[in-house]
Amino acid sequence: MISQLEKVKNRVADRSARLRSDYEDRMKEAWDAGPSRTSLSCGNLAHGFAACSSSDKDALKKPVPNIAIVSAYNDMLSAHQPFERFPRIIKEAVAEKGAVAQFAGGVPAMCDGVTQGQPGMELSLFSRDTIALSTAVALSHNMFDGAICLGVCDKIVPGMLVGALSFGHLPTIFLPAGPMETGLPNKEKARVRELFAKGEVGRDELLEAESKSYHSPGTCTFYGTANTNQMLMEFMGLHLPGSSFVNPSDPLRDALTKFGSQLITERGPSANIQRPLYEIVTVEAILNGIVGLLATGGSTNLTIHLIAMARAAGIVIDWNDMAELSSVVPLLTRVYPNGSADVNQFHAAGGLPLTIKELLRRGLLFNDVKTVIGEGLDAYTKDPKLGSDGEVHWQDGPDGTLDSEIIKTHGEQFQAQGGLQLLTGNLGRAITKVSAVEPQYRKLTAPARVFCSQEAVLDAYKAGELHKDVIIVLKMQGPKANGMPELHKLTPALGVLQGLGHKVALVTDGRMSGASGKVPAAIHLTPEAIEGGPIGLINDDDMVVFDAEKGTLLVEAELTTERARVQNLPQQGHGVGRELFASFRKNVSGAEKGASSLFDEGSLS
User: Taking the alpha carbons of 292, 293, 295, 298 in that order, is the dihedral positive or negative?
Assistant: First the structure.
């Protein structure tokens, strides 16, 4: 085990000691109380199984496992449409084991791909806390002995885990739906987007390219937040090994769903194997997730979500922990936008089992952890296969990479540092994704151009005002200001400017998409402008120094309040439901504290 990993573990454990102890005490008390259905009155129980079949009613009168299904199914979003058939598979599977499964509740699932650049994007980050609350409501009826969470995309998995951790005494498993099959290559899609930004192709050509890329049920095939979530659940032992990137149409997908459903019926106070959720989500598991994020060049959104997920388990992490691990965890994979391959090609090259095997070889993961399938991460180095008996069998995967352009093994790496970097300086603290940015673009000094909305940036771009060396400073995009929307709509225009030979970067207190790519971006800048952050004091033409190699971000000016200019801010907080989230904006913590409204911010210090 590399000493840096142990050092971070000990620091996090010490920092979290009180919160974690309190959390574990609550979970142990709930576990020791036994199956909660036994505490229900006859009236409670009758309400709880009134809609069940007569056989399920008879079963639920006895101490048989009753498994909650919490699902993000909807048929508008490709990643969640496959979940339509999962409840039937789950119910039939657990019935074979003498157990019952009830659909406990649905959670909202919005797609950032649909809302990018739209007003609804201001609800996106807060949907995570809404999903956490919805998960808690679904599990609140004291009817359940275990839980199955069906979710994939950006805020859904983090929200579900936060909610499920409030019921951490329950054995819980996450069952994914898998990615869509490969369509138009992501690099070609990005090329057409830039042509559209240049005005060289029209909307019809752009829509045709987008439709060929996002073309069927399943997760988008690039390595954005949704697929980073799937990686995270596997590294943390909450998925079945090797299950993240099996396509929805593959017969193995349904077999994995059946296996996971039956597995969870064997976990509980009355079972021989005892593995509640709180025993899986430990300091070591959280750090394994961070290592996976860094080694695969995953989505920057997880630098926020991981903090919230950890906090729900009584664990306090911060960007310093991530930065320290990034200094020793190499980048081992290249999946778009960090390379040309998509997640299907990554899976074919060895995928997560091979990546986990390589990190274990290098002493960069904690192996002594509990998972949904057993003890240790060694099980996660194996590949699931569908046997002739129709059942899932795990076998040894490749010992080395099947494509060295996608995965590096046996001591090789794409870069010595992980995919993310912490930036500090007189503007505060920010995150930048370096895995997708070529080295020659990671360091620049250029004059600032200050904006308060994406639309204003794009208007200036269309007017030709940004065709020069420039650092776009986009403020008033933090969680308190407007819910911290992703700013991916800017990517094509900024890519065009960089392609013309200009030095260009983005500095913002907002977020970029998990698909943020080749243009350097300092994001999640905290403190945010509306909280008095220094980003609010930058003026046009101030020289900004952006150095992702040294980890510095600063402005060459004296940032006094007297120099701040009054700017006309776009109207915020109304329309498409934004007014309903006013309390979230009021109570949300900063980005480095998880941008959450669910926890006492003081306890995160």
Answer: positive
Collapsed DSSP state (helix, strand, coil) of residue 516 = coil
Q: How many residues does the chain have?
A: 605
Confidence of residue 48 (pLDDT cuts 50, 70, 90): very high
> Does a structural domain hold residue 440?
yes
385 against 214, higher pLDDT: 385
pLDDT digits (tens, 9 = 90+) for 416-446: 999 899 999 999 999 999 988 999 999 999 9
CA dist 574 and 569 (Å) reads 14
Same domain, 350 and 443: no
Task: Give one word for 267, left, alpha or beta, with left for phi > 0 and alpha for psi -120 to 50.
Answer: beta
Sequence-separated (6 or more) residues with CB below 8 Å from residue 520:
432, 437, 441, 442, 444, 505, 506, 546, 548
Q: Is residue 250 part of a domain?
A: yes
Q: What are phi and psi of 525, to 5 degrees?
A: -60, 125
| CATH number assigned to the domain comprising residue 541 | 3.50.30.80
**pLDDT of res. 603:** 46
Residues 381 and 456 in one domain: no
Number of domains in the chain: 2
DSSP letters for 128-151: HHHHHHHHHHHTTTS--SEEEEE-
Closest to 112 in 3D by CA, of 98, 99, 103, 125 = 125
- Domain identity same for 437 and 362: no
Spatial distance between the Cα atoms of 348 and 10, rounded to a whole number of angstroms: 36
Answer yes or no: are the C-beta atoms of 513 and 486 closer than 8 Å: yes
331 with 443, same domain?
A: no
Residue 68 domain-assigned (yes or no): yes
Query: 260 is in which domain, residue-wise?
Result: 3-181+216-396
Per-residue exposure over 497-516, b if at least 16 CB sit within 10 Å of its own CB, e if not: bbeeebbbbbbbbbbbbbbb
Q: Which sign does the torsion angle of CA 516, 522, 527, 530 carry?
A: negative
The three-state (H, E, C) secondary structure of 46-84, written as one string: HHHHCCCCHHHHHHHCCCCCEEEEEECCCCCCCCCHHHH
Q: Is residue 585 part of a domain?
A: no
Does 36 share its domain with 128? yes
Of 333, 361, 396, the one marking the end of a domain is 396
601: Cβ contacts below 8 Å, ≥ 6 apart: 589, 590, 593
Q: Work out the number of other CB atoms within 10 angstroms of the CB of residue 469.
A: 15
- Listed residue (543, 422, 558) closest to 471, CA to CA: 543
| Amino acid letter, 572 | Q
DSSP class of 224:
S
| DSSP letter (8 states) at residue 437 | S
C-beta neighbour count of 85 within 10 angstroms:
15
Residue 466 one-letter amino acid = L
Mean pLDDT for the stretch of residues 113-124 = 84
Q: Which two tokens stand for residue 83?
A: 């979940």
Nearest to 507 by CA among 562, 436, 426: 426
In the block, tokens 């149409």 appear at 249
